[in-house]
Structures are given as structure tokens and as C-alpha cells.
Amino acid sequence: MEFWILSICRISLMLTLISSSVQGVAGQTQSAYFLPEFALSPQGSFLEDTTEEQYLTYRYDDQFSRTTRSDEERDTGWDAWGAWSDCSRTCGGGASYSLRRCLNGGNCEGKNIRYRTCSNTDCPPESGDFRAQQCSAHNDIKYQGQTYEWIPVTYDPVSPCALRCQARGRNLVVELAPKVLDGTRCKADSLDICINGVCKEVGCDRQLGSNAKEDNCGVCAGNGSTCRLVRGQALPHLSPEEPVKTVFEVPMGSRGLRITAKGPDVIVIEAHAPNSRREEIVFSSVGSHILGNNTIEYQRGAERQTLRCHGPLSADITIKVKYAGPKDTVLQFMFYQPIRYQWRETDFFPCSVTCGGGYQLNSADCIDIRYNKTVGEQFCHSYPENSKPKPKLKECNMDPCLESDGFKEVMPYDHFQPLPRWEQNPWTSCSGSCGGGTQERSVVCVEEDVNGQIVQVEEWKCTHSPRPISKQDCNLFDCPQWMAMEWSQCTVTCGPGLRYRVVLCVDHRGQHAGGCNPHHKPHIKEDCLVPIACHKPRETQPIEAKLPWLKQAQGLEETKVALEDPTFIPGPWTACSVSCGLGLQRREVKCKVLLSFTQTEVELPDEECDEEKPPIQRACDSGPCFESPDSPWWPLGPQEIPEQHSYVWEYMGFTACSASCAVGKQMAVVRCVSTLKKEIVDDALCSGSRASLSLFRICNTQPCPARWEVSVWNACSVSCGVGLQTRSVSCVRPVAGNRTEPASSKDCVETRPPELQACNQVTCPPAWVTEEWQQCSHTCDRGSQWRKVYCKQRLATGSYRRLRDEECAGNKPVTHRTCINSDCLMPRLEGGEWSKCSVTCGKGVQRREPVCRRQTTSGQLVTLDRSACSNLPLPPLIRSCRMSPCSKNKYSKRRCPQVMGLKRIYIQTRQEKRLTFTIGGRAYLLPKTSITIKCPVRHFPKAQIRWEKNGSDLKSSKRLSITKSGALRIYNLEAGDIGVYHCWANQDSDTFILKLIGHNNRLLEHPQGKEDLDKEKLLHPSLNKESSYAGVKCQEQKGLSTIKKAPKSLPSWMQKNEFYRDDNSQPEELWDTLASSNNPLAPGIRGHTGAFVLEPAQFEELVKNITQLAESGDVTDEMASQLINKIMEDLAITQQGAPTEDLRVTMDNNFEKTPNSSKPSWGKGLKRGSGAVITRQKHHGTTMSFQRDLQIHVGQTAYLTNATHSLTLLCSAQGLPHPTLSWSKDGAPLQKSERISWENSGEVHISGPGTKDVGIYKCTATNHMGSDSESSQVLLAEPPTIAVSQRNASDLNSTSWKVVVGGPVDIRVGANLTLECPVKGVPKPTVSWHRKEGPLSTSATLLPNGSLILRNIAPQDYGIYSCVAANDIGKSVASSLLRVAGGTLGDSEHLKEMNRKRVLMASLIGTNITVKPGDILRIGCPVVPSHRKPITWSYQNQTLKQSPGMRYRTLVGGRVLEINTLGGKFDGSYECQTQSNKKNLTAWVHVLSQEFKWRLGEWSTCSASCGKRGVQMRKVQCRTSEGKETKSSFCHHLPKPISQPRACNLLDCPPSWVSTVWSKCSSACGRGFRERRVSCQQVQASGSVRVLPNSECKETHRPEEKEECRSHACVEWITGLWGKCTGRCLGPAVATQSRTVSCRHFSNSTTKTCNTKQRPASVRNCSSDMCDVHWKVWPWRTCTAACGSGFQSRRVECVHRQKMKTLPDQHCAWRPRPVTWQHCNITSCGSECQDRTHYCPVVKRLKLCLVDLYRQRCCHTCSQDTSAT
Fold this sequence. Notes:
16 helices; 122 strands; 7-stranded mixed beta sheet; mainly beta
């Protein structure tokens, strides 16, 4: 128990001890005090009481409980925090505190006390309410001389942590203690607790200050991912024949169920509990209904039914509707459905080591929350909301490991076992050498044990860190391309010759490289002709052999590499055949191809290469010859030379190394050589043994690369089906002596061999397979359960084939058994009702309390003490909730609250029961009236509205309450209710002034006197500028004041009169006399019988009417004067105290209220001083005058014209004392000048006003009682101007178009056109539209901005449309010609011409004619053109003016009548009457209307013959009145109906066989079988498919269910051993090695049918010393030209770094090759212009000076004639 029950004597003794030091409450004989153990007080002695805002002064009894001070505490002067105190409660959520002291004399910043929650388990039910226990402790203490039984009162929002109790059975509420005990709940339905008298927020996680809320799924601090929102609408069509229908189902565990039904039908809910019990409720009465363990709230209105259930549902429920009337019922529903399959974290796995420090990991299982069992992960993956939790990791077994001599020393860095980590192998070579490719690598999870051994483990152990990527893009640069340089000069100076250019293969870096396609290489040589005759014999030496061209061509020759197409690849040139003079060089040229999948070069026969084979020899020049000894041999020493000197043994180098790594040997090669011919001869010619000369040397001492070593495969795991075999794989390094040593996995660059493989892929014999037992049929006590048993056969592919039971040997396992479930009788922890959402908009949380329950044997649920479920896991106690979206502001994310008040004056004229007002006004009411003051707000929750009266917060009482919507209710008004009421929404507020009218029509005074209003002005934050409201400052507050002052339009909900009454009392006394008098104001102010509702501007009229009633004798003078003086005195006081209130009243009939007024006084009616008031003329609107001398009163607008020579502004004011007047212009004081002057009377005179005088002039009247101001605007009058468009506008495609008036407009028939008329002018011009051809059509509409809309344009809309803009200064006109294209009669011009000529003549005997709507109908009267007598037209025996809706006009002096046939009725008889030759002439025409209408045609053929699959449509046709189909264009002006499809052939289809697709072949190789399911089905008329017995389809052929199949995919990829690492170089010391990969049958024959996507890699990277190469660059050679543009080359070779041996260029191809040539000496060959050849006259004569080459050679000759150049 958390509350000790004390005996009466103990309480009396304690009261005796403390009575001397505690003063009782006034008026009470005894007070209640709690003993120290009831309160949460710090350990130690306190010198004073404390709150959170004060520091505690204390001394500690236990200094050893203090924690260590942090560095921050040392800097701030605080001592370390003390130990946590005991919990204030033993259950139900208490509080504990910790203290610290200030060490620098009390000047520390921060608090010296902190709190936390404790004892968060629920109390047992018998313990009772904690607050009730505290109230009951005062039962034996007398209060005002009497004892009571105290019970706690409901939640008090003002002081939730005060102990307010009520005497049982009495209306007595007393605050027995200012603070409840720490840990007491602030209110019953919340987790928030009181600490030290302050309500502290507690989250659903029971943590202090936590904002954790339950989500919609009931999860504390959840994200709503464990459930789904289901919402929808249903319209069940019920009838007496089908009275009940199932609408939808809600699964168990759902929450937030809400159903709304509109209609008469009855809602029925059927529950299916897990224990197979079924319950049903038919909702007929409102209230709460119990269904299972859930409470359903049911409400019913006139036409609406509402059901709510918070959940979670304890059973599956089915929603049905029951027929109750012919009207259909519409159901709308929503609920949160739990996700059935969810991830649940497992327990931690065993520790990785037994000692020395290891780790533990956990995982997550997919759980079926309905049955609480583990299922396959695919069920959880099917929900996108589910995300599998990452494995968690923790340390374990941290104790040192024991050894023989005790504990072994463990170094700090080796104390913990390393975590599993991702290990990645090197990247493979890129799939493309350029232009983008991909490369891959293998990534595995490895673990290092305590012995340092690294082994591969399951990948989930590494999921604590992100998995490295295993595939990436590479070589994204562009491939090399050919680039041709400029052509050289011709090699001859006369006649035919050759010219050359350099063609380079340039890579993406712009450097010279290989790899370009040789077939696309531009030619480097071409013929050239110098048109100059040659006068010397032709040279014999070929041009190619001449220098410097020969050297240039040789030095710039391209290095070629093999491509995917066969290409000739030349080798390096040999040395020159001679050491001096001219010789020959030779080389090998081979046809090669690059195999893309192995990246290796293969030699082919020369016939495979289509291109011309490059030369294999060339001339070479070794320079001049000088005699010098040259011996290429390596002679032996003189001691080794035998006596016979003709043949000797010579060393010719060494053999290849015997090993590629780990120490090899090389033997010297000895040959017999002739000393004369220097040739190798037979060994027999040399004397002596060659063996005596043998020697060797050590080579390749570098260590060998690591490689994978595998063991033999273990035995297969199964004997049939598909099993697994394992083997060990380790990385080793070969060492000398054919031995190996272990190496790190990082050193093995090859792909790791597999450690698993499939085995025993043969079909197993049939066997019985059993599934898991299903859930017991009864959740409580004895029941039965069953399982499925199949006869299956596991195939060689690993899949199962289901067989008939007869094919399995042995007895079939049992499928049913009895079960007993005793867990139902055990207590279980469930969730209670969900709280309201924590927010009013946006996303918040909901909470609930856990409840311990148990089911009895009868199936009833009983609630137990929480302690009975102490060891059970808590259900979800928090979930998210989503309310309507919060309003957004485009200027800030958080919009500021606004109080939307109404400035109204309410005067009650007779007794009413209840009245309703809106904040912002003032009311003069009669006592005993009950009122409601509404406070409409924006961007603020109404539940948080705060009310004040005269500056003090209002609290609820018997006569005063605040509703949930924020309205204030006051019952039976009395004098104490007089005052100023403020409604607060954060920082914004508005006021409502309440006055009472006595029985003699005098205003009552507040019992505390008149000072109440003045006190309110001093106390209220909005009236006292120095005070500030305790709230968050808002960014929009500045804008709010502007919004409130601006007279903008209010929302519709504010336009209505917020004044209501509830009874029909009779009028009485003064106000009824006033309301019933015949004054013009009465209808405007009498909104309701019994009260006046006035605008502030109307109030002055009311005062004047009261005066008139007094003069007429209807009201006594005393009564009228008393009321007027009292109301105006009250208003005057309010005006002085509240300058923001917009109420102005005056007694002068010639004055009016204006928006610019401020603080006016009340003139004649008052004997004391009055404030300054400007006299305002009752002239409304603007005045336009062309007078020479213009005079206006302040408040009006003046327009300056050319006729204005002077302007006078008049301003007069009243007040006592007389006010002084001042003027300002545009906010600055008005300065006097030669043109501007004013007198003391207030008149401002401006002579010669112009543009510089335009502005706002303000007159201000001031005296010591107040001030008033008024403004006038002076504008410069301007005539209207139209911004016309002169361009031709044409659009024959759009259906809607906007055009500015001014130019011609072409538009198609049926389109909508907007003609815009942009106008400027002062005053603002008025805009009108006209049509030259006649009135505007009925489809024309004038918009407020002056634009004209023509809808559904027809050919008859052709014409000229004019926009006329006019004001008092002038008028402006702009026109556009509208031309219509696409009419049925062709072009609009042609139509106009046809209509102009088409006149139907009336006749004396009558004429019948048929006219289509839209045609122009012109009827002519049969008179001669010279007829001048008046002609009268009539329609249906009535004059045209008497015919409503008739649109017409007369033409040609009345002889022709034109009727508009678009819109309205026009068919009938038309007559014309006149006099001809002194005789009456009457002729007539009968017009018939040719009407066209859209009609729906016949139904089309049904798209299906049976089932609910057929659809029929009807074609929409335009038909005449006779029913004939015509063109659709005749009906385009009519709304076209929509053809709705309908279902057809709603018949049951005949039964038929339906088969599924064939399964895969059972054998992957050779003969097998495949299966499919065949069933007899029938498509019913409802569209559903019904499965029938096979006998129903016996008349038709049944498809086969099983057939043989043969698979020819009996192939596999066979790989060979990896070759040597001698492939092409990919990087420093990185080359490639290859192996053979072939596709073979199981019979070992070769084929090409293998899946290429599964082909093993045939090339991989390897480590090679041969690739340790670099490009060696020689110096640049001499430039080919001394001046002008030359080039130079250099030698670039691929050289091994260590051996310094030249290698083929492809070994260095992985690095960019340095450039081998460059331009040089790009300088001029002299500044003087001269000829360099004697052929220049010929060049000039042939006009070749235009060519740069010849112009440079013949500079002097070409410059003599400038015209030639």
C-alpha cells in the first residue's frame, strides 16, 4: 500500500505538535496537515519551502551518496548530484528527486533539484484512487466546526494539482491542500502527474517529460507501420426479397472503428470470437453496447446512424444491414487493421566465445500475431510497411580465460574478439576497355577467431555494417578516335608528287594511344600536282626514300594492337642489317584477333585478315661508315681457349628459370663456334667436354603468390533429392621444397572456390509428409485439432510432387487429435480504451492503460489486479493518430492565432431567457438574462481559449462556465457580472463590455464601484503597454493589427447576426416605443424582437431618435436624458481607455462617422470639456468638377483638370476648448510656399495645382481633451486610354482563347473567345461593349475587369466589336474584326454575303418557310423601294414589343424584319401592315422551326454472349424534328448527352473445361513429365466463376492433366585449370590469366546450347612481375625545319623497371603512351616579303595567289596586284 491509514489518536497527536507553528485558514477552526511520510521531501533538513523556481537550502545527512562532479558542474559552481530519493509511491507511478548544492554562494545558474518517475506498475484495484485517499484523510478533521466525508472533485484545469474535495451529498467544494502528494495523477484519464504542485507531462513510456504518444496501431512512440488505414463506402441494395446483406468484415485486433450510415436500414454486427462463440447485436437503441470485450457507442439522428469502437477488437466482426424501408442506405466506414505478419526480435544467440570477451547477435523472426507463431519470412516481406530490424550486438563473457598458471595477460587492444566483417576480393577486369563497362568482385562475411584464423560465416552476422558493393561501372571514358593533322607541302616543286599528313589515334585525354579501328583510319598519303612544268630529268630515287620524309614516316608510324576483327599486327623492327650506310630492317607481321570474353590475342592465318599486309622490311640508314672492331660474341678467357684456334666453346646465355617463384635455377648455354666465320658448328668440332664448362645461377627468388587449397568433398547430406556436400577451402602460399604455409585470404586474388555443392540429385521414393497441427478448436479447455498429411515424392530438382495416398507405403499418419488449452485460464495483459488524439490537427499520438484480465470457464472476461500480470509483456500502449491537416501559411509554417470579433452594440429591450453574442462588441442588457459570448478564432484550438474579466482569469462556478468550443456562459445576470471580458487566443484577444439596465432604464453600477473599468485597463495586457503576455511571440502579430483595422470583407460565417433569443416575451417600456416608432432607423436596427443590434455608425441615429421621442412626448424628458447621458458617458470613458475601439458617436445631424476618426468628444450633450472633433460633410462618393476655383471639404477626393487654377481644402472642427488645426501631406508636415498657404480657420489654398501637388492631405484637430484627423486625396484627372494590340490574331485549334482588342481575330466555330480591354484613366473609367452589326448575342458576357466573353462562337457572331471606355474626362474606343472559320456554309464572309441577300418575302396569301435555329431570318414586306409609309410588324397577332423574349431589328426603313433565331421561340406567323395607294396592305409569313436534337441510337451488339462480361453502347446522333439523322455540326450548340454503357447477356455460361498453364518439366535432362490442373467451371450471370463437378462437363473433351516432356538441356559448362599469369598487363604488376571454358553434354560431347549468362569466367586478374614496366622516353630529335612550321619526334619504348629490358608496347598499354612527335620552330622565316621560286609569274598567271602555300612562296609577286589576293 502507498497510503498508511493512521489512527485517530495519532492524527490528533500530530496536530497537537504542529498547531503552535502553523496558522489556520481564516474562518476554519481546524486545518488538515499531512505527515512527512506522505510528501516527497528531500533527505535532510530544509530551512525553507521550495518550488522549481527557487533554490533549496539544506544540509545533507549523507555526503557519501553524492555522485562525482562533471567538468561542466565544476565550471558552473554546482556540486555533484546527490542520490535519488525513495519513490513517493509504491505503485501507480510516483516521483523521485535528486538534489545538488551551489558552492559559490548561491549564484549558480539552473535548478538544484531534478525529478524522475518511479514505481510505474499499476496499483491493485482494491487500493482505490490515490487522490481519494488524500481527501479521505480529512474525514476526521472538522471543517467550520463539522466533519464531512470528503471525495475528490473532477479535473480542475486551473489548478489540477490542488487537493479540492467535495463533501459527499452536499454542494460544498473546499481546497483542503494547495498541493496534492507527488505522484498524484493530474486527471484520471492521463498519465501526467503532479510534482511539487506542478502538473508534469508523462509519456506513454512512463517517462517524465516524454512526449511519447501511442500511434494509431496502439504502439507507444510508434510510427504507425504496424497497421493499415482501411476506409471505404458501400451501397447495399436491400429489398423485402433480400432483407439482409453482409457489407464488410473487420478482423480481430482492429482499432478506431467508425461507421456512418445514412438511410433507414438497421445495422447488425456479428462477432466471431477465437473460441468459436458467436454474438450478434441489432442496433435499435442509442447508447453503449457490449460485444465480447469491446464497447460500441451507437448514436442515431433523424437520417444518420453512427457507431464507434476504439478497439482493439477481441474478435472478427461482420457488418450487416437489415431491410427497414425502400430507401437505400449508404455506409461509410474506416478502421485501422493490424498487419498480421510482423517482425519480432529474437533472443540473443549464444556468445561467440566462452571467455576472453566475445559478442552476441540477435535476429528477427516473422510472427503471425493472430496465432503468435513463427512463419516464413515471405509473409512479412509481402507488407511494404514491414522492415526487418537490423541485428543487435552486445558484449558477452568478458572474464579472462583461465590457464594453468592462473589468468593470462590480455593486452587492451586484444581484449575483445573482433566483430565479423565484410571481406571483398579485388575487382575483376572491366568488361569494356573504353566507352563504359562493368566489373565485379565477390563480397563475403568473415570472422576471426581467438587464434587469428579467418573463416567465412553467414552473411547475417555482418549486417551490423553496410555491405560493400559488388558491382560498379568502369572505363567510362570515350574510346580512342582517329585524328588527322594538316597536309604537308607537295614533295616536288613541279609536276606530280606526293603529300603526307600525320594521322594519330587520340584517347579521351587527347594523348597519342592505340586501340583505334584500322579500317576507319584516314589515309596518310595522297597524290599532289604542282602546275609548273619540270625542266630537269625526273629523280630516280623514290620519293618515300628521301629525307626528311622517310624519317618522318618512320618516326610517326602507329603502334597497332589486336581488335575483335582480324587485324595485321606488325612486330618491332630488327636492328639495321649494316652498321653504317644504307641497309635493311625486318619485322614479323602476323594476323591476330582479340577474343573479347578471354581478353587474349590469338594468331590466325594471313587469309583471315582482309586488309593489305604491311611491309615486312624497309630501308635503313646507319650513317657514314668508319672502321671499328665489332664482335657480337662472348669469348672465353685466355686460359679456357684450347690450342686449336679454329673452333672454341662459347657461352650463349642461360636457359629459362626452372621455377617462376620461390627460388629456381638457370643453366648456362655453351655452343661450339667457328673463330673464323663466327658461326655455331657441331659440338664434335670442339675439343674437350662441354660438361666441364657447365655452370648455373639462382633465379626468381621472389615469393610465390598465394593460392586457394581445397580438401576432398564430404559425404552428401541426403541420399536422394538434392543434398549438400561441403569441403574446406584455405588460402596457402607455396614455399621452397614443395611445401605450403597458411596465408591471409586477402593475399588470394583468385575467386574463392565454392565450399558447398549439390549432390545426390536423384528422385526419392514416395513418402508421407505432415504439416504442423492447426490451432485448437477451443481456446479454452478441451478441443480438437487437425493437420494435413500428403503423399509426396521429392524429385531430383529438389521440388515435391504430390501423389495419391495409395502410392505411399506404410500407414498414413493421424490427421486429428484431442487438445487441451489451459492457457486461457491464465491472466493476460490487454490494452484499455484509447485516449483522444494529442493534437487537434496534423499527426499526434493516443495512449491507453494496460488491463489485466482472465477468462473464466464460462467464457466471461474478468478484470484482475495488475500484479497478477506483472510478468507478462505489455501490449502496445501508444499509437499515432492523424487529424485533419493543419492550415498552412505561405509566409510562415506556424500561423498566428486570430480572434475574429464583431464590432456591434447590443441593447436589450425586453426580458429574454437566453441571448448569444460575439466577442468584440458591447451590450446593455436586463438582469436575470442568461447569455453566451462566442469567441470565434482562427489557427488556434478552441479548447485552449482563455477568458478574463477585468484583467483576472475566469474560473468556472455555478453561474459561469466555459464550453468546449471556447464560449463563455453566464447564467442569470446580476450586477456583479458588469465589466470588461477578454477572450485570449495565445497573444491575440478581443473584448466584450457588459452593462446592465435597471428597472428605471438607468445603467447599473458594479458593486465595487466605477473603478472596476479603470482597474481593468491597468491590469489587462492589451491595455497596458508595459505588460507583456506570457506566450510565444508570433511573427504575424504586426500584420494582425492591420487586418483588424482594414475594412475588408468578412467570411460568410461572420456576416450573420450573432444575436439569438429563446422566448416570446412581450415588449415593454422605452425600447419598444423606440422600435415601434415611425423613424427611418427602426428597420435597420431592429434585428430581433426584444433587442437592438447596432453598427457603431448607427448608434448616433439611435441617440437622435431618442431625443425626437422625448420631444414628441412618447418618452419623458428625464428618462431620455438619463439614458443618453449614461450611455454616452460610458462610451466616452471607453473611448479614452481603449483607443483601438472603433466606435464614434456625435449629436450633430450634419456630421458622420469616418474610418479615420480617433477619440472624438461628445459635443453639446455634455457640460464638461470635450475632445476635438472634425466636422465631416455628408457627401458620399467622389466629386468631379471643372470649375476654375475648386473647393472641397476634407474627407472628399479632388480631381485636378486643365481648368483647375486653384484648389481649396476646407477643414472645420469642434471641441472644448477650441481645437487647433494642422496639415500634413503624405505623412510629412505641409510646408508653406508662394503657392500654398492656410489660415487659422483651417483652409488650405493651393494656386496653380499640378502633378507635384498630388498626394494625401491630412487635417488634424487637437486640444488637451483629445484629437481627431481626416484625410483627402488629390489626384490628377486623366482621360481613358486603351492599350490596344495591332497584330493579327489567329487560332483555329484552341477551344478557349484570350485576345487583346485592336486587331483582326480569326477563330473557329464552337470556341470560346475572351476579348480583353486594358484601360487606364482617373477617375476609373467604365467599360462597355458594342457590335456594329447589331446587339450582342446572348452568349456574350461582360466581366468585371472590362473583358468580353463570347461562348460557343457561331458563324452569326461575325462582326466588328468595339470596347468603349469613358469617364468624366473623355472617352476612348478600340475595335476588332471577328472572323469565324469552320461554319457549315463555308467562310464567314461568304456566310455574311449569303445572309445579306437572303430575304424571304411575305405575301398577301401567306408563305410557309422552314428555318433552322442559328440561321439569320430576314422577312421582307412586299412594297416598292420608294415606299415611305410606316410599316407595322406583328407576331402571332401581337406587336413585336408585346412579344416577350423576341429579339429583332428592322432594316431598310422598316421594310425588312430581322429575327435572331438563337435562343427563345421564333416560329409562328409574322405580318406586315402598311398603306399602299391609299389601301391597307397586309402580308404574312408562317415560319416553322427546323429543330435539331441529340438522340441516342439503337444498342450495339453485345460484346460477350454470356456471363457478366458483355457491354452495349448507344451511338449519340443529331436528328431533325422528323427523326432523320443529320450532320453533328447542326447540334453543336446543344449540350451533348453521354452514352452510358450497360451490361448485357447476363446469362450463365455453359460449363466448360478450364486448364492452368503447364508446369516445368520434372527432369532437367532427358525424359520427364509436366502437369497442369483441369477443372470444370461455369461463368455465372453475376460474373463470378463457379467450380462444378467434373460430371457437368462430361459432354465435352477433357484436356490432359499430365504429359511427357523431354529436356535437351543436358549440358554444363566445363572449366580447365588456370594458365600462367602471362596475359596482357592491366596495371602495375597486374596481368591476366586464362583458362578454357567449354559447353559439353553429359556424354562429354561439345555443344553450344549452354546458358551464356551462367558461363564461368575464363579470364581473371593475377599478379605478374612482367607487368612492372614503364614508358622510357628518349630526348627530342632535331626539328625538321629551321623556320616556319616543322615537327620533331622522339623515341618511346616500353621497358621493364628491374631488368631494364625493352618489351613490346602492349605490356605498357595500361598506361598512357607519351607523345612521340610535336610541332617545332613555329616562327616566321623572315620579315621581308620575297619570292622563293622562279615559278612565281606562272603562279600569278594561274591565279594561285589565293592559296596560302603559293602566296607564301611568291609573296613579292602576289602582293603587287592586290586584286589577285
